[in-house]
Amino acid sequence: MAREIPLASDELKKRRRYLSKNYLETGDMLIVYAGTEQRLRNGLDNVYPFRQDSNYYYLTGVKESEGLLLIVKGPKGDAREILFVQEKDPDKEKWAGYRLGKEEASRISGIEEVYYLSQSDGLTAALLNQSQRAWIPYPYQWSISSKSSPVMANVQVLRDNFPHLRISNALDIFKLMRTKKSPVEIKFLKEAVKMTKTALHKTWRKIKPGMTEYQIRALVEYEFRRQGGDIAFNSIVAAGENAVVLHYVECDKIVQEGEMILFDVGAEYGLYSADISRTIPVSGKFTPEQLKYYKMVLDCNKKVIDAAKPGKKLGELNDIVIETLKDALQKDKLIEKPEDVSRYYYHGVSHYLGLDTHDLGLNRQQPLSVNAVITVEPGLYIKEKKLGIRIEDDIVIKRNQALNLSKSIAKEPEEIMTIMKK
Question: Is 332 in a helix, a strand, or coil?
Fold first, then answer.
């Protein structure tokens, strides 16, 4: 089990004050739900491991299901903060585990006004009746499935029972706030990347032809856990032709001499995710052809990191990869026309990173800001050669030069081969 890494209450208070001061107007009310446990299909008393709603955690630091946060902007510019949590229940705690209770939730969050959920309906309704607008984070894409989700059900309840309210999507606020990372957040991300480095380098030394992808994945995830971290997302360990599938998760192939293995993995530390991709030769040595294509991807990776500065857009960074690969693949005669590059490179080069692996952030045509954290992950996927290569780093945008959090994770061919020899 991952060790508990609490956020300091001062950091949480600062976030809530900033949100209230900069985004809420008099008569506004922010509503954020903690999320609910998801039950397994084969039993009423079995649940999936609970993962806190990231926006709720961002403002409260509380890791417990069913909670509710309210922030109400008063007429004098003051903000009333109210937190509702599960009631202490010794009998239920025997079955489902420890509940924080009001005092502990207050200590973690720094919120003074904390109640049990049994008191939430009356107080929330009274505050909604006094408000003009409710901010609530909900999915941008409306569909049958999203409308049936707990969050969308709550939005519909607000629309039906409080018709005077303007309802606005709080994701617009959280996108702006969560794009820029604080020093504490960058510290957590550094630790997640450090855990990922240890896991990868240790695993590479143990790889042998004849192992299965799932055995290799288990070695990586064991190292995440051993270090006190968690698994940020479904780990991808893809050998040979499986590496051309971007989200390959079956992991049931036996790895063969002469193949490459693509790793796309990340440890989670304090709910903050690393996201690292590396591609290595099973035998510990690149063939000439593998090395040729590997260096094309590595060249793209380095060019994008060098270009990543405030004001640049994710779309512009992706254009660097496309242009670089067009030239390289035409010279290699793998493609004849520039537009054919999309046969071998078919994803974006970057996404935001933080509490979620694909974190909230600005869209691809908005400029990057200082202290945004993004991935840089060019790839090349040649199905007819049974070869997929991706090299992914996690970087912090700085004023003059990007800070590469994963710089020490081997990606030069010589570095990789040296590690695998040990």
Answer: coil
Q: If you compute the radius of gyration of the chain from its CA atoms, what whole number of angstroms results?
A: 24
What is the phi/psi pair of residue 313, to 5°? -110, 150
- Decide if 101 contacts 64 (C-beta within 8 A): no
Residue with tokens 């599960």: 86
Report field, pTM of the whole predicted structure over 0.70 = yes
d(CA 142, CA 238): 33
What is the residue-level pLDDT of the chain in tens, covering all 422 positions? Answer: 456 677 888 999 999 999 999 999 999 999 999 987 665 566 566 667 778 899 999 999 999 988 999 999 998 889 999 999 999 888 888 888 888 999 999 999 999 999 999 999 999 999 999 999 999 998 876 544 455 577 788 888 899 999 999 999 999 999 999 999 999 999 999 999 999 999 999 999 999 999 999 999 999 999 999 999 999 999 999 999 999 999 999 999 999 999 999 999 999 999 999 999 999 999 999 999 999 999 999 999 999 999 999 999 999 999 999 999 999 999 999 999 999 999 999 999 999 999 999 999 988 899 999 999 999 999 999 999 999 999 999 999 999 999 999 999 999 999 999 999 87
Q: Tell me the two tokens of residue 218.
A: 């288990």
In DSSP terms, 387 is beta-bridged to 382
Based on the fold, state whether residues 282 and 227 are members of the same structural domain. yes
**Count of Cβ atoms closer than 10 Å to residue 141 Cβ:** 6
Are 393 and 350 in a shared domain? Answer: yes
- Residue-range definition of the domain harbouring residue 136: 9-178
How far apart, in whole angstroms, are the C-alpha atoms of residue 152 and residue 145? 9
Q: What is the phi-psi region of residue 263: left when phi exceeds 0, alpha when psi lies from -120 to 50, beta otherwise?
A: beta
CA pair distance 350, 347, nearest whole angstrom: 9
Burial class (CB in 10 A: 0-12, 13-18, 19+), 162: middle
Degrees, nearest 5: CA angle 319-323-326: 135
280 belongs to a structural domain: yes
Dihedral (C-alpha) 202, 206, 207, 210: value to the nearest 10 degrees? -150
- Of 128, 158, 178, the last residue of a domain is 178
Distances (CA, A) of 263 to 34, 127, 232, 278, 346: 32, 50, 14, 5, 18
> Per the structure, how many domains does the chain have?
2
CATH number at residue 152: 3.40.350.10
